[in-house]
Amino acid sequence: MAVVQSERRDLLPVVASLYYTRMRCIMAVHRPADSTYFNNKYFGLCMATLFAAHPVDTGHLMRIQKKMFLLLWVSLFLVCATGTSVHADVILCFGDSITAGGASDTGYPTPLQGMVSGHAVVNAGVRGEVTNTGAVRVNGVMEAHKPKYALIMEGANDISQGYTRSTVAFNIGHMADVARQHGATPIVSTITPNTRVPALGTAVPAYNSEIINMAAGRKIILVDSYNRVASNWRQLSTDGLHTNAAGARVIAEGFVAAIPPDGGGGGGGGCFIATAAFGSYMEPHVVVLRQFRDELLLPHQAGQWLVHQYYTYSPPVATFIASHAWVKNAVRVLLLPVVGMAYLAVHHFVFLASGTGVFLLLVSARLLWRRRLSRPATC
Questions:
Q1: What is the C-alpha to C-alpha distance for residues 155 and 173, in angstroms, rounded to an integer?
Q2: Which of 89, 117, 314, 326 has the fewest CB within 10 Å, making it most exposed?
Q3: In angstroms, how far apart are the furthest CA atoms of the chain?
Q4: Which residues, in sequence order, are CB contacts of 319 under 8 Å at separation 6+?
């Protein structure tokens, strides 16, 4: 019985550390400005109280810490070669005033940025633009921003200016083709409602039907923004045509849900095991791991090899994890220290590297001292 109690006490600081890591990651990703709320002072007070009530085997704790630090040092050694860093993946929002926003209305890129941590959202909307103009402009925008994803929503102005449904669908399809030529994944949206001019609003569903058929024929990801907002459009728009903050958020949520979770290389996915365990590749813990991959692994040859091996062998494991709830829970716990180390490596690298260096120096000094003491005495 005493042995069991001792083992439980040994686990207390480990569990507390994992919980602390989880809280810091969540606060930093979801509320960066408030991440100091859960700070070291209050955490230290809680830990002091915990340790006073539950004495721990410090020797066992030190052995655990040594193994974790040695593992961290090996990881850092593989990725800390000199090289250039990788910028966050770009999500390009291309469209008209529904995208661009304005003084009295909100474009969906504004709330979108808060939903896609680890990505840079670029608002390339132009108020009053028709698809003919957009089809000419798109190539230069793609070259300038080199996006990972291109979110395309245009056509409202075409209806008011008398362009045909087939013209709108053709032009949007051309924009998607250009995005693909530049290595981006296009995601096309239907046109939002127009209750400001009812005569024009009644034509929107027919235009959307043409866009839906075009997207299906070209195998382009489609977001049906019209049906996401139509039933509550009065409360989601400022003037019957443009979205307010709530409407922009609904549209942004539709795009987020459509971004594929298996994008492979840079920040567009690829964290198969973490995504399977946490349920979404936009989940804060997964975002931290993607940032570690993009900023510290992919810029270097050794890191690229490691990522390639992971992509080769991890999908079957991820499939098994995703289909068993109890395995998900276990993998989440196992990944927490990995997420914690990745977060420190990305956001506090100097602190992490210096702390690891000091630890290794102390370990080396202790080993040398023990070796000196173990030498036989000589006359």
A1: 12
A2: 326
A3: 108
A4: 276
Confidence of residue 332 (pLDDT cuts 50, 70, 90): confident
Please tell me the number of Cα atoms within 13 Å of 8 on its side-chain side: 8
Percent of the chain with pLDDT over 70: 65
For residue 98, give the nearest of 149, 39, 35, 157 by alpha carbon.
Answer: 157
Contacts of 317 (CB under 8 A, 6+ apart): 272, 273
Helix (H), strand (E) at residue 92: strand 89-95
Per residue in 81-122, pLDDT (tens digit) is 333 333 458 999 999 999 999 888 899 999 998 888 667 899
Q: Which two three-digit tokens encode residue 102?
A: 């304005």
In angstroms and rounded to an integer, the radius of gyration of the C-alpha atoms of the chain is 26
Task: Quickly state the pLDDT bin for 341 (edges 50, 70, 90).
Answer: confident
Give the whole-angstrom CA distance, residue 272 versus residue 75. 20
Q: Backbone phi, then psi, for 183, in 5-degree steps?
A: 85, 10
DSSP string for 312-339: HHHHHHHHHHHT-HHHHHHHHHHHHHHH
| Residues whose CB falls within 8 Å of the CB of residue 182, separated by 6 or more in sequence, listed in order | 142, 143, 146, 147
- Cα gap 95→124, rounded to integer Å: 7
Q: Output the pTM of the full model.
A: 0.54
